[in-house]
Amino acid sequence: MKFHNTLIKWYLQTKRDLPWRKTTDPYPIWLSEIMLQQTRVAQGTPYFLSFTTAFPTVFDLAKANEEQVLKLWQGLGYYSRARNLHKTAQTIAFEMNGIFPDNYADLLKLKGIGEYTAAAIASFSYNECVPVVDGNVFRVLSRYFDLETDIAQASAKKEFAALAFELMPKDNPAQFNQAIMEFGALQCVPKNPNCEECVFNNSCAALQKKKVGQLPIKSKKTKVRNRFFNYIVAVDNLENTIIQKRTAKGIWHNLYEFPLIETDKVEDFETVAQQINQNFFQDNKIESLLEYNEDSIIHKLSHQHLHIKFWKVSLKGIIENGIDLETAKTFPFPIVIHNFIEEKL
């Protein structure tokens, strides 16, 4: 029996009931694909439902302001996805009359849409014969065919795409693409897959050679950078605080935060207190200073580990440009700051 017949039969019996699979409309398919980059389905689904409720059409998303979009995205991470999503919605709504390109090549020209997402939209919405290649596909094909290509290399995607195209039934590429991704997500999982129950256990080369745990091959990740953030949570006589927008390029662009002191290492109380006294709140007398968390909160990003401490600064009088806490909560924050506000303030 052909690879695709076995795979699609498994898919039809096993597939999850996911909202974006019930349509060929490119708008919700695009939303789901962007959200599920770097995000598990269980985590991404509530965000998808929130977005499609708030912005049922690409025009609604295009007309929203960026802060609304970032606020709804809060907690999904990789916030450049949300900013690109918003800009692309504006392009489609205002320059293309709300009509998505109907082919892979033109989809690829849109901001934030790479090869994988363009292939997914082109096949799921328009049934174009173009293979999707994501982590699941790399894993399934490398194991089934015992391929030792380093998937971190740029050339790997072309090799795996060519193989997937060869395997793909040309009369139903959408179903094949959905099936191979689902198989990687549910059956051929990264660690300890249940090979005894696998529909390919008689034909998988990696299983026969006892190499399942070794594949796919991926060279080591970029070295992680450690950063040390000290957030200054001011509280004045009106119980107002102050927040600021991160406008510099880099992590959390256009999200909000408390005034920040970034240091080279974890600093002691006296050092941080001295910096606060010297550099902040010159128009208000500092009445007290304390640590909300004695031990740093370690917030892990893809190539950075943030060591975060929050410092409460009680001020005499009224702070300039202060904001009450309920209003502050309506702004988009990185999830680590959002969680701190919900738990501590």
TrEMBL record:
Molecular-function annotations in GO: hydrolase activity, acting on glycosyl bonds
Catalyzed reactions: Hydrolyzes free adenine bases from 7,8-dihydro-8-oxoguanine:adenine mismatched double-stranded DNA, leaving an apurinic site
Coiled-coil regions, chain positions: none
Cofactor binding summary note: Binds 1 [4Fe-4S] cluster.
Cofactor or coenzyme needed: [4Fe-4S] cluster
Keywords tagged on the record: 4Fe-4S, DNA damage, DNA repair, Glycosidase, Hydrolase, Iron, Iron-sulfur, Metal-binding
HhH-GPD domain segment(s): 35-186
Listed EC numbers: 3.2.2.31
Function of the molecule: Adenine glycosylase active on G-A mispairs. MutY also corrects error-prone DNA synthesis past GO lesions which are due to the oxidatively damaged form of guanine: 7,8-dihydro-8-oxoguanine (8-oxo-dGTP).
NCBIfam families reported in the protein's UniProt record: mutY
Family: Belongs to the Nth/MutY family.
PANTHER family: ADENINE DNA GLYCOSYLASE
Protein name listed in UniProt: Adenine DNA glycosylase
Species of provenance: Flavobacterium granuli
